[in-house]
Fold:
Amino acid sequence: MNMKIDLANLTIAKAHEHLKKGDFTAVDLTKAYLDEIKKKNAEINAYREVFADALDQAKAADDKIKAALKSGGKSADFSVLLGIPCAVKDNFLIKGRITSSASKILENYHATYDATAIAKLKEAGVVFLGRTNMDEFAMGASTENSAYGVTRNPHDTSRVPGGSSGGSAAAVAMDGALFAMGSDTGGSIRQPASFCGVVGLKPTYGTISRYGLTAMASSLDHVGHICRTVSDSEIVLAALRGQDPKDGTTISDRTYEKKRVGAKKLVIGVPKHFLTGEGVDPATMKAFDASIEAFKSKGYEIKDIKLPNISYSIAAYYIIVPAEVSANMARFDGMRYGLHVDGKDGIEDYFKTRRAGLGKEVIRRILLGTYVLSSGYYDAYYNRANAVRAMITEDFLKAFESVDLIAIPTTPGPAFKIGEKTNDPVAMYLEDIFTSPADLTGLPAISVPCGTAEKEGKKLPLGLQLIARHGDEAALFEAGKSFLGEE
Amino acid sequence: MITVKELEHLAVLARIDLSEDDKKSLVKEFDSILGYVDQLKKVDVKMDAEGRVGAVRNVMRPDIASPVSVEDREALLAEAPDREKDFIAVKKIIAQD
Structure:
């Protein structure tokens, strides 16, 4: 190796330039990350498994880099992701490897095909370092619901990293990967990104194929990623987006009309009425107000907006999600794949297998979903929640007639203590108060670091969330880069 | 709000064994969750509105079978808890006289 690799300040774009110039190889880079993981993972538990063949993947990438450089000229340009080490949440299928969704029921399940997002990353030449811990089947906001132990926040190991993509956020925050794949159904990328001081993107519903992502609540599940910078997030999205015949919900670049109200600079809306609720940490509001001032001083116009029904988001969410969970989890029957616990007959096999293989929160949501969908309650709960969801969406679309972005905090406060909310499901659900609206509406949203809150002598990261029109990730990147002073 | 009997019925529908302890804590948790989501009853909703996420449109594909390679079939079968040759083996569901 010709130079020391400064992982703490590395970005995908910088790493690509170094690989091009030969400052270090993909093997050097992968080794540097594996060393960090070795040092830190025993305590943080970001990774459930570090892939034994990571260096082989890096070697293959180096061969491609060498061949590209040798050919010279234009073909000397190679994919910006070639040789870049990445972590993958344990709910993405990578052919031949275990995908467990942090559940006992899939403990030894080997994926039989590649998720589309994974296939695209393979094509680009990414090095997969390992799979990261998560809340079981992505149900949770702290990674405490993993069947394989909690992940700790690298900024304060007595606190949670957020969730459900807590392992992915912690992996990037501890310099254990240059970027990480995640999924977001109610905030599962943005909330842990906020808690860990990194950048989390949930694109428009349908932007990235979910083929090969373990399903949780299909009308809200999104694939996205966690990076160190907004520019990196943009690079990764460019590699992952696109229509997929294997996921009928995927969209094209033409699905949504391009529109802006700001002639030169984007106009940012702030729903002040939504930010005054109790339970929002004063430090969060202080950082948020300072962020809005920063946008003002950069010449952005700020407008007060109203989202009349947004406060019902969590209530609607916790009806719709369990309903969809109860349907999606029905596939775990102990017969076709995964855990099997033997009973006296086929029916008893179901009962025993599902009880033994599924965790508390998963069972809670299955039963709740069965309840809200049962006859007599269907209209009162499920239909009503869907109608409210439509009203929330209308509110947002109306707001986007006068603004290009909506800014709110990512979370009500900084990372909480391990165990603080485990016995109170509603308190845990309220963690998603600022993130679930973008999932219910399918609008793209990004969380960027916006300062810290000091708790018990530790500086804990806070996140600013920007939400844009359907299909307008470009607005998120433009404002996000400007906010973080990138470029 | 929910009784143990109702909960037991849900567990049968969802095919999950519940212990007595599970039931006790679930009844309590259901009460607090349903208590929270009940705020939706206050909303003056347009019940004909459908909750939809983004642009909804039909997506069609040709109605043709796609062949599965021998390797893929083997990989799928290898994940089954029990198999008999190229079939997944399950317990008998109809009793014999």
